């Protein structure tokens, strides 16, 4: 039988881990236990960028990473970082499940310059939408002016914050709590389950659903493993991946709803402004940048 090593960075109670467990169970069932998975959660095998390098070298079989780090290897994946790309959750999933989304997954094996990436996509997992949370309420884009907001190390996220007149401050996830507490930053951005898991509600009492980005998680497989599998084995993996994606996204929605209830119980005020107000500002700022580039 074939044993497959699967790695991710999240804790074992996370919807992604439960999705990968579902994948593992289905692989075993579909293959009559000819294929089994060994899951390494919690970043045991390193960080997401390291996983992608290990998939390339064939020292890891399958990994879950965000689409964001994949963009360093396959530049077209950067499209998912663009702010306000999707109207809402159903728009997001209808695109991912359609030819566009599937095409991006299938083409992950190609870097875009004709060179192979060393891995290919199996399925998407839901990582929700990213939203602002802050010490002072953010009800309108103007409320972000002059604020210092933690973002991921991502040029798109940094320029989005600048278009709101805020200062973007990249830092590691573990540093956010202390920085909020000390007032080094005025806010950050993420999804409700992560906000709750990191207990940021203790130091931040305002959460604003502006849904500025929806960056999916991606389950990828090493090309060297994929190429040595029979068509039947490949189909087992693809079927299990698809089923696990449907399972994981339901779980994600439940967890998000639960997280919002916990936030409210912890005294967090939830703001639901019209995301279009934020989107318009980002688009105007992008136009301005393009115009100034033309003039210079």
Written overview of the protein:
With 296 residues, the protein is of the alpha/beta class. Helix content is 44%, strand content 20%. It has eleven helices and eleven strands. It has helices at residues 15-30, 48-57, 67-70, 89-97, 99-106, 155-163, 176-182, 192-197, 223-228, 231-265, 275-295; strands spanning 2-7, 35-40, 62-66, 119-125, 130-134, 148-151, 167-170, 187-190, 206-213, 217-222, 269-271. It has a five-stranded mixed β-sheet, with helices on both faces. A four-stranded mixed β-sheet has the order 8-5-9-11. Strand 1 (2-7), helix 1 and strand 2 form a beta-alpha-beta unit. The chain starts with a strand and ends with a helix.
Write the layout of secondary structure elements.
Elements: E1 2-7, H1 15-30, E2 35-40, H2 48-57, E3 62-66, H3 67-70, H4 89-97, H5 99-106, E4 119-125, E5 130-134, E6 148-151, H6 155-163, E7 167-170, H7 176-182, E8 187-190, H8 192-197, E9 206-213, E10 217-222, H9 223-228, H10 231-265, E11 269-271, H11 275-295
Parallel strand pairs: 1-2, 1-3, 6-7, 9-11
Antiparallel strand pairs: 3-10, 4-10, 5-8, 5-9
Helix pairs in contact: 1-10
């Amino acid at each position: 039988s074939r044993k497959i090593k699967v790695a991710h960075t999240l804790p074992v109670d996370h919807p992604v881990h439960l999705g990968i467990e579902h994948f593992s169970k289905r692989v075993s069932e579909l293959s009559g236990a000819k294929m089994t998975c060994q899951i390494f959660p919690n970043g045991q095998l390193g960080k997401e960028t390291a996983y992608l390098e290990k998939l390339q070298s064939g020292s890891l079989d399958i990994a879950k990473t965000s689409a964001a780090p994949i963009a360093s290897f396959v530049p077209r994946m950067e499209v998912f970082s663009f702010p306000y790309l999707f109207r809402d959750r159903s728009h997001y999933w209808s695109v991912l499940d359609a030819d566009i989304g599937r095409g991006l997954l299938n083409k992950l094996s190609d870097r875009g310059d004709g060179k192979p990436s060393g891995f290919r996509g199996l399925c998407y997992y839901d990582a929700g939408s990213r939203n602002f949370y802050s010490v002072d309420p953010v009800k309108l884009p103007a409320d972000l002016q002059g604020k210092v907001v933690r973002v991921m190390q991502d040029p798109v996220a940094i320029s989005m914050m600048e278009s709101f007149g805020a200062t973007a401050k990249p830092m590691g996830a573990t540093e956010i709590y202390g920085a909020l507490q000390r007032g080094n930053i005025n806010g950050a951005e993420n999804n409700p389950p992560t906000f709750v898991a990191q207990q940021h509600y203790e130091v931040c009492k305002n959460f604003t659903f502006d849904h500025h980005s929806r960056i999916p998680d991606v389950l990828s497989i090493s090309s060297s493993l994929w190429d040595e599998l029979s068509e039947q084995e490949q189909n087992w993996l693809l079927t299990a991946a698809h089923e696990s994606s449907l399972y994981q996204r339901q779980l994600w929605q439940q967890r998000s709803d639960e997280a919002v209830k916990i936030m409210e119980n912890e005294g967090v005020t939830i703001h639901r402004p019209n995301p279009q107000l934020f989107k318009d500002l980002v688009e105007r700022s992008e136009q301005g940048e393009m115009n100034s580039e033309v003039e210079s």
